[in-house]
Amino acid sequence: MKLYYSSGACSLSPHIVLEESGFTYETERVDFATGNTETGADYRTINPSGYVPALMLDDGQILTEGPAIVQYLADRVPEKRLAPSAGSMERYRLQEWLNFISTELHKGFGALFNPQAPDAWKNIVKAQLARRFDHVSNRLDGKVWLMGDDFTVADAYLFTVLGWGQYVAVDLAPWPNLVDYQGRVASRPAVQAVLNAEGLTG
């Protein structure tokens, strides 16, 4: 398999899951400024939407959208317990989290990265994000991971999105549960390996 990624983008989530899963895989960086991959390929010929992540499967198929990719990977290694079994109520709870992170957090942060967004709008978005952080912090209270005792693909995604705060002046200090959670995820050996590989440490 090959993951097409951009350093620190939402593709960090499937990158973490690939490493946690123990797969043998390749990565290829995408340069959004040129639209090309590091080998010079036009990325839109791989993913017409033009954004990451994209996962090339061993049979040549391309799978896109982070929540779909991470569930595909988790289902290939059920012994890693990165996702509850398909059809179980816990699996729907996982999907509930993946959808919340995607629509309520990921998209919110996206607006803060837009250089054309006026400051007044960014302040509104930050206030909305703060309410979402309240929710996540409350749900994490007394838990190690989002789903309880098992690290899952939802944790890889939440870690990725919360990490963007440092780039857009969103301070997580008012939510110590989130700060502690980020530290727990970051300390995992697989996560450290991926952060190093993407040049996100130091």
Write the layout of secondary structure elements.
Elements lengths: L1 E4 L6 H10 L4 E6 L4 E2 L16 E3 L5 E3 L1 H11 L12 H24 L6 H22 L12 H10 L13 H11 L2 H9 L5
Parallel strand pairs: 1-2
Antiparallel strand pairs: 1-4, 2-3, 4-5
Describe the structure.
By secondary structure, this protein is an alpha+beta fold. The protein folds into 2 domains: 2-80 and 190-197, Glutaredoxin; 89-188, Glutathione S-transferase Yfyf (Class Pi), Chain A, domain 2 (Up-down Bundle). It is 48% helix and 9% strand. It has helices at residues 12-21, 66-76, 89-112, 119-140, 153-162, 176-186, 189-197; strands at residues 2-5, 26-31, 36-37, 54-56, 62-64. A 5-stranded mixed β-sheet has the order 3-2-1-4-5, with helices on one face. Helix 1 (12-21) packs parallel to helix 2. The longest helix has 24 residues, at 89-112. It is globular. The two termini are 28 Å apart.
